[in-house]
Amino acid sequence: MSDAEQELETALNPDDEDATFVVADAEDYNQSRRLKAIHQARADVRKAHRNVSRGKAPKHVHDETRADLARAVAYYATELEPLMQEAEWDRELPAGPWDTIDVFVATAPKVPPSRADEWDRIPEQWSMTIFSRLNEFAREAGLGIDLKDSSDEWEV
Predict the structure, then answer these.
(1) What does the pLDDT read at residue 30?
(2) Where is mean pLDDT largest: 3-17, 21-35, 78-92?
(3) H-helix or E-strand containing 101?
(4) 122: pLDDT confidence band, cut at 50, 70 and 90?
(5) How many C-beta atoms lie closer than 10 Å to residue 105's C-beta?
(6) Where are the domains of the chain?
(7) How many other CB atoms sit within 10 Å of the CB of residue 29?
(8) 69 vs 59, which has greater pLDDT?
């Protein structure tokens, strides 16, 4: 097997522990991976929201699905954090028990006790309000979804 064939075989079998590959443009590769991570975090929020919205469930199950939604939104915020810092974007929140997105991330999936009688699960509406605020940043930052092709891929 020639060296070129060996390199192709290695590239086609990434599970091989000895596999190596060369990234031609490291900056482009990192940007693509970052966009994929942001896209996946956003998709996870949508999936968690569908689970919360699926009708009646016992209270303990519903509480856990709301907690999953809050955690998914917090993770989405964490993925966007480096971009928000770079853009010096205002992370203050207009309503709810948190002053900023950072405080939400630190306390999710619970409401801080200073703002509630006791630690309680975050209501769905608050999670989705913060999700909307994060999507506002994504639009302002130029991270959009290409709707022309009915695609769910990100474009920059």
Answers:
(1) 78
(2) 78-92
(3) helix 101-107
(4) confident
(5) 20
(6) 38-155
(7) 11
(8) 69
Q: Which pLDDT score, from 0 to 100, does residue 93 have? A: 83
Distance of CA 142 to the CA centre of its chain: 16
Model confidence pLDDT, tens digit, residues 47-57 = 988 888 776 66
Contact present, 16 and 10 (Cβ < 8 Å): yes
Could you tell me which residues come within 8 angstroms of residue 21 by beta carbon, excluding any fewer than 6 positions away?
7, 10, 11, 14
d(CA 77, CA 84): 9
Query: What is the H or E stretch that residue 154 is in?
Result: strand 154-155
Residue 144's DSSP bridge partners are: 155
Dihedral of the alpha carbons of 102, 105, 109, 110, in degrees to the nearest 10: -30
Q: Which has the closest alpha carbon to 10: 1, 2, 18, 19?
A: 19
In this structure, what DSSP letter does residue 100 have? Answer: B
pTM, whole model, 2 decimals? 0.69
* DSSP SS3 for 121: strand
Q: Pull the structure tokens for residue 92.
A: 């203050």
* Alpha-carbon gap, residue 59 to 41, rounded angstroms: 26
